[in-house]
């Protein structure tokens, strides 16, 4: 393909040159190139004609030139990645599975791939930081800012007309982020426990493993203690605080997301370091590879879920860049507030006044698509770009690939891999690859199903705790439709139409999620279940007393 494009480009270049020479030959008798006329002035008509001709030739050649440059660049980057992978693996493509499939094809379950055969961290920028250097892409960013300004003006004008004065109240934000002192001491408790307990248990296990007369019992005992900490303390503790103190939605979201992050961080720390201790014991080394407290502390704050003793670091901290990222995070919060204030609240506040029907549901879904998509973009930009980049810059963390170009995906399989690289890496190395290691490579589809199940359960758990009700819309969409699309709309779909189909389904899915969860939220706020009883008659039928619905 590249050779054909080169030949085509050369033909077009030679053809353009021949045409230009013929034009010159035709014009030379009359004008004698672009020399000055008899009156000493340049012939402007010939100059403009020449300029138009050169512009047309350049526009004709530009797409072919860009395609050839792009193909060369792709080949160069692919070759560079292959060479890098070869060097990382000691000059040959060794993986944990190739080692497990040895000469005797025996499965060595005690083998674990060392950390350097997992994710490789390199010094690189986030994709949006690179794209924002292009004026065309930065203009899209400016459009979102202009839309935010219009939302603010719309709110101020409507409040002034209704109240006769400017109403600068953020009651929704103050409610959503209420009881912050409870959130702060809960977070501090989770952080200190995650810093101390996993490190202490691992250090105690590592130092006593080689000296123990029963290493298996020794390992199982410490593994049991670690699981008790993960499930009992980090798992149940924050959930109990959230429910017992009846935290508002945004405060609940902070606690639950940090709970999940600490669980994943602690698992990664243990998962990456245990194989090193086992290999050291096999080699009968005198030194035990135990990370320092500073390395573990840095990992707890670093914007990654994959533990390494060291990461690529940038030379300096750009504090202006950090301030700008946090400013954009706060701007995104206000953006979401105005979206709910101007687009969602008027839609769902009065929905209880209409009888429920298919027409009402369909209109609600389609009216929820725009705010749902805007919330999707803002969540991605605020968290995966601004928030993670701010912490990466403060910690001089070099690898900023927190996401890839998920917007160009033509398949859901590629979308799942590129939307959130941070979480995907954790699921890939610690759920998918470990599942294949335990059950061998024959169950790839089962491994994918297991990863989807874990992700769907965690997503539904977070949403149920944050909203204070269990309504498994996200679980059904994620587990059934999302998994089906992953196999049907797979990586073999490369045509642009599949990108259109992916965006269409993504828009519709977020509209359904926002519509159904918002309806349930407002129904529980305005139609609380008061004096509800369950009656089981002699006929065996279950009947409910209708709830008392508040007046509008």
Automatic annotation (TrEMBL):
Residue ranges, annotated region (Disordered): 1-39
Keywords, sorted A to Z: Acyltransferase, Cholesterol metabolism, Disulfide bond, Endoplasmic reticulum, Lipid metabolism, Membrane, Phosphoprotein, Steroid metabolism, Sterol metabolism, Transferase, Transmembrane, Transmembrane helix
Gene Ontology terms: biological process: cholesterol efflux; cholesterol homeostasis; cholesterol metabolic process
Active site per the UniProt annotation: 459
Major localisation: endoplasmic reticulum
Reactions accelerated catalytically: (9Z,12Z)-octadecadienoyl-CoA + cholesterol = cholesteryl (9Z,12Z)-octadecadienoate + CoA; (9Z)-hexadecenoyl-CoA + cholesterol = cholesteryl (9Z)-hexadecenoate + CoA; cholesterol + (9Z)-octadecenoyl-CoA = cholesteryl (9Z-octadecenoate) + CoA; an acyl-CoA + cholesterol = a cholesterol ester + CoA
Subcellular compartments: Endoplasmic reticulum membrane
Membrane topology of this protein: Multi-pass membrane protein
GO CC terms: endoplasmic reticulum membrane
Transmembrane segments: 140-161, 181-202, 223-247, 319-340, 360-388, 446-463, 469-488, 500-519
Single GO term (MF): cholesterol O-acyltransferase activity
Family membership: Belongs to the membrane-bound acyltransferase family. Sterol o-acyltransferase subfamily.
Protein name, as recorded: O-acyltransferase
The species this protein was found in: Enhydra lutris kenyoni (northern sea otter)
């Amino acid at each position: 393909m590249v050779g054909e494009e080169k030949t085509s480009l050369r033909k077009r270049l030679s053809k353009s040159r021949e045409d230009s020479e013929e034009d010159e030959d035709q014009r030379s008798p009359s004008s004698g190139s672009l020399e000055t006329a008899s009156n000493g002035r340049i012939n402007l008509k010939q100059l403009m004609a020449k300029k138009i001709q050169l512009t047309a030739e350049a526009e004709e050649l530009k797409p072919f030139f860009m395609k050839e440059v792009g193909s060369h660049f792709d080949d160069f980057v692919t070759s560079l990645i292959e060479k890098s992978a070869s060097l990382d693996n000691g000059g040959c493509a060794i993986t944990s599975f190739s080692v497990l499939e040895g000469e005797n094809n025996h499965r060595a379950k005690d083998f674990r791939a060392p950390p350097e055969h997992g994710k490789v961290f390199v010094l690189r920028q986030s994709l949006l930081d690179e794209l924002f250097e292009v004026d065309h892409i930065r203009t899209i960013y400016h459009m979102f800012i202009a839309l935010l300004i219009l939302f603010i003006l719309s709110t101020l004008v409507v409040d002034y007309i209704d109240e006769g004065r400017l109403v600068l109240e953020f009651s929704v934000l103050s409610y959503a982020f209420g009881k912050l002192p409870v959130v702060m001491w809960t977070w501090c408790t989770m952080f200190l426990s995650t810093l101390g307990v996993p490190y202490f248990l691992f250090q105690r296990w590592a130092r006593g493993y080689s000296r123990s007369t029963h290493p298996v019992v020794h390992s199982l005992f410490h593994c049991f203690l670690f699981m008790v900490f993960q499930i009992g303390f980090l798992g149940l503790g924050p959930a109990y605080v959230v429910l017992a103190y009846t935290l508002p939605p945004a405060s609940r979201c902070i606690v639950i997301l940090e709970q999940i992050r600490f669980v994943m961080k602690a698992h990664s720390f243990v998962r990456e370091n245990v194989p090193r201790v086992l290999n050291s014991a096999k080699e009968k080394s005198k030194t035990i590879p135990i990370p320092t407290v500073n390395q573990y502390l840095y990992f707890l704050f670093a914007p990654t879920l994959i533990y390494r003793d060291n990461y690529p670091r940038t030379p300096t901290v750009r504090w202006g860049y950090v301030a700008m990222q946090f400013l954009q995070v706060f701007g995104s919060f206000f953006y979401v507030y105005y979206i709910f204030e101007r687009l969602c609240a008027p839609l769902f506040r009065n929905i209880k006044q209409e009888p429920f029907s298919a027409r009402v549901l369909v209109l609600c879904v389609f009216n929820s698509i725009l705010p749902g998509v805007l919330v999707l973009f803002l969540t991605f930009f605020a968290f995966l770009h601004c928030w993670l980049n701010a912490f990466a810059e403060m910690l001089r963390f070099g690898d900023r690939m927190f996401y890839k170009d998920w917007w160009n995906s033509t398949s859901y399989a590629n979308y799942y891999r590129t939307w959130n690289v941070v979480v995907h890496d954790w699921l890939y190395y610690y759920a998918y690859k470990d599942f294949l290691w335990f059950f061998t490579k024959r169950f790839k589809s089962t491994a994918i199903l297991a990863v989807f199940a874990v992700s769907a359960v965690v997503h539904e758990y977070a949403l149920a705790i944050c909203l204070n009700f269990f309504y498994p819309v996200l679980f059904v969409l994620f587990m059934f439709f999302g998994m089906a699309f992953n196999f049907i709309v797979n990586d073999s779909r490369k045509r642009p139409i599949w990108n259109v189909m992916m965006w269409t389904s993504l828009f519709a899915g977020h509209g359904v999620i926002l519509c159904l969860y918002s309806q349930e939220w407002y129904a529980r706020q305005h139609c609380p279940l008061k004096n509800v009883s369950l009656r089981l008659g002699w006929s065996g039928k279950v009947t409910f007393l209708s709830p008392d619905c508040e007046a509008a």
